[in-house]
Structure formats: structure tokens, C-alpha cells
Design goal:
The chain is 58% helix and 6% strand.
Length: 375
């Protein structure tokens, strides 16, 4: 098979088969369907990249997508915390879900931001991947499983033991050679679409499974990191975890078919469909943000004496859509009573909505029209 082969490990009752991927690149059958999807995906990615030029404060837009991606990618792995929990925690507002779940997602955000910052001065590399992994597992579930280090023992997926596992990746002795090849493939000069390469990098990383924990999340991060590294995106706006979570069963089935049936093209078609759908949704979200911003700015501008402070709060809401009275007092320097009155006016204008109360009975408000585009 092009993708690799299963090789027997150990003997007797301890025998099992581990999948050893072949080195990249290998031949891809670019049939009409795959070529059509590839063309559409590149066009969709180009339109998405153009969003960074029209959305005001694009970094706030990116920040929200980073939080959403971190939440959904973690949910694919079983984390239960929601985007609202993460945003509330970021604003230092009490959250309802397990603090450990929220911490996992916050680590993902930190790991992603670290990687994006480092990419401006440092190449996408095994060293950077290890740095990101260390941040991902800091003080959370899996922190005892060699954070920031490639595995030196055998791991497996599913099953109660290695000999009845759903998938066993290559032995630890093969990991470094395979990763070295993967790193070289990222910079291979041979002509190939960067989108096809991104899809291949993802399945190869998952097949190698080089860490004892966190492989899925790191593998999904690599997609965006690689496309930014290749300057396909000027801003990190493509996040596929929403698509993968929506089609979770097919996501795993397609990855499984790569090493079981050599169906590389099936995975790439699914991957490109995700790029097309996700890019289109992000462009539409950007359009809706512009509309909401214009409408709410117009409403607030006509609110009389409070308009200056209300517009100030509105700008902060794009960064922090969940707020309390303390936020408004900090942003505007208004007294407690005046800040409270401002909040009530913004509720009356249907810019803000009550999101509940903290355990200390403090009201929590949120920018519903904006948050609902992501949550």
C-alpha cells in the first residue's frame, strides 16, 4: 500500500501488528472529482483570506475563532466545556463546567497562540510542535504523559489491550525517522498543492501518533499552521474542527480508511469538502459581523449622552462578549450607579442580554448577536 504497512511486533501471546507509514510524498490519483474539489477549495480559501482586509479589528475576529476552534477540537476528544465557559473564564467570570475542562481548552488557545506567534520568526518544525504540545498538556489531564516529548513507548487507540486495539501506530523506534520525513515533506520543493499537502500532513501525523496524548488536537492545529507558513492565509482564519465535529464519525472513518484500505483520495476529498464548507461559513460570519456592527453603532450613536460610553463598551464586546458591571466600570471609569444605568440602557437597546448570575448574584451580560455567530 502507498500509505504504509502493518508489521508484526513481538511474538506468541504478546504479538500484535503496528502500522508503519511509508515516507511522504507518494503518488496521488488526481481524478476529476478531486481536481474539482481542489479548485473550489483554493477559491474558497482565497475568499476567506480576503476577509482580513474588510473585517474591522480582524485580530478580534481571529481571537474568537481561536477560542471556538480550541473548544470544538477539545470536544472532539471528549471535553465538555463550551465556548461560553471559555469566554467567561477569559473574562474572569465564574464558569459552570469543570475547571479542568476549561483549563484544557485554555491550554489549547495558549498553544495555538504560541505557535502562531513563533511562526513569524521560526519555521514550522518538530521543535515547534514539541513546544506546542508541552503547553497543551500543562497541568491538565495527560500532563503525566511526557508533555513536549515524542513517545518512547508503544501507544494504541481503542480496545482494552494492544492486541485488540482499533489502531496501533508504529513502534517508538520508528517515530523519529517518520517525523523527520514529515518535516522534510513540509518543505519539499516538488510541485503539489499546499491544500493537498496539508491534508496529507494531517493524516500522516495521526498515523504516526508521536505523542502519548494530544495527537488529535496537535494534528488539527498543524493544518492551520502549515497554511499560514505557506502564506496561503495572511491571518489564521481556517479552522476545521467544527466540520470534523459535525461529521465526527466520517472524520474517523476516513482517517481509518487511509491505513486500512489505502484510500488516501477519499480522505483528501473529505478534507477539501471541509475547507470549502468552513471557508464559506467564515466568510458569511464576517459579513454578518459587519452588518451587526453597523446596526448597533447606529443604534448607540442615537442614544444621547450615553453614546460615547456605550460605543466604548461596544468596541470591547468584540473582544470580550461576556461582561459584568466591573468590566464596564473599568472600561469607562464611570461610577457604579452610572455604569449600571449604562448596562440597563444597552439591554433596553437589545445590544446586551442577561446571561445569568454568578454564585455571588452578580449579573452577567453578553453580546448575544455577536456571540451567536460563533457559539
Amino acid at each position: 500500500m502507498r500509505a504504509g504497512q502493518y508489521i508484526k511486533q513481538l511474538k506468541g501471546d504478546l504479538e500484535y501488528k503496528a502500522f508503519v507509514p511509508n515516507f511522504l510524498p507518494f503518488q496521488i490519483e488526481l481524478d476529476d472529482e478531486l481536481q474539482t474539489l481542489l479548485t473550489k477549495a483554493h477559491s474558497a480559501l482565497g475568499r476567506l483570506d480576503g476577509v482580513s482586509e474588510v473585517v474591522p479589528d480582524v485580530d478580534f475576529f481571529v481571537r474568537m475563532y481561536v477560542n471556538k476552534e480550541a473548544t470544538l477540537s477539545s470536544q472532539v476528544e471528549g471535553t465538555e466545556a463550551t465556548l461560553a465557559d471559555v469566554l467567561r473564564a477569559g473574562a474572569k467570570i465564574e464558569v459552570s463546567k469543570s475547571p479542568s475542562d476549561v483549563k484544557e481548552i485554555q491550554n489549547y488557545v495558549s498553544a495555538m497562540n504560541h505557535g502562531l506567534k513563533r511562526l513569524k520568526e521560526f519555521p514550522l518544525s518538530l521543535r515547534l510542535i514539541k513546544e506546542i504540545h508541552k503547553i497543551l498538556l500543562e497541568d491538565v489531564r495527560g500532563m503525566e504523559r511526557m508533555p513536549g516529548e515524542f513517545r518512547t513507548s508503544q501507544n494504541w487507540i481503542g480496545g482494552t489491550a494492544i492486541n485488540n486495539a482499533t489502531f496501533v501506530p508504529s513502534s517508538p523506534q520508528e517515530v523519529l525517522n517518520l517525523l523527520d520525513n514529515l518535516e522534510k515533506f513540509m518543505y519539499d520543493k516538488a510541485p503539489m498543492s499546499s491544500l493537498l499537502k496539508a491534508g496529507m500532513i494531517h493524516f500522516q501525523f495521526e498515523n504516526i501518533h508521536p505523542f502519548l496524548d494530544g495527537n488529535g488536537r496537535i494534528g488539527r492545529l498543524l493544518i492551520t499552521f502549515y497554511l499560514c507558513q505557506q502564506q496561503e492565509l495572511s491571518k489564521p482564519l481556517l479552522y476545521l474542527s467544527a466540520f470534523f465535529k459535525k461529521h465526527r464519525k466520517e472524520y474517523y472513518t476516513r482517517l481509518h480508511a487511509v491505513h486500512e484500505d489505502d484510500d488516501v483520495e477519499g480522505w483528501l476529498k473529505f478534507f477539501l469538502e471541509g475547507v470549502i464548507e468552513t471557508s464559506g461559513e467564515a466568510v458569511e460570519t464576517a459579513r454578518k459581523i459587519l452588518k451587526i456592527r453597523d446596526e448597533d453603532t447606529r443604534i448607540i450613536a442615537g442614544s444621547g449622552r450615553i453614546s460615547k460610553h456605550a460605543l466604548n463598551v461596544l468596541e470591547h464586546l468584540y473582544k470580550t462578549p461576556f461582561i459584568t458591571l466591573k468590566h464596564v466600570m473599568s472600561w469607562t471609569s464611570l461610577s457604579k450607579s452610572n455604569a449600571y444605568n449604562l448596562l440597563q440602557r444597552m439591554v433596553e437597546m437589545k445590544v446586551l442580554y442577561l446571561a445569568g448570575k454568578t454564585s455571588t448574584r452578580e449579573n452577567v451580560y453578553y453580546y448575544k448577536s455577536y456571540y451567536s455567530l460563533f457559539g
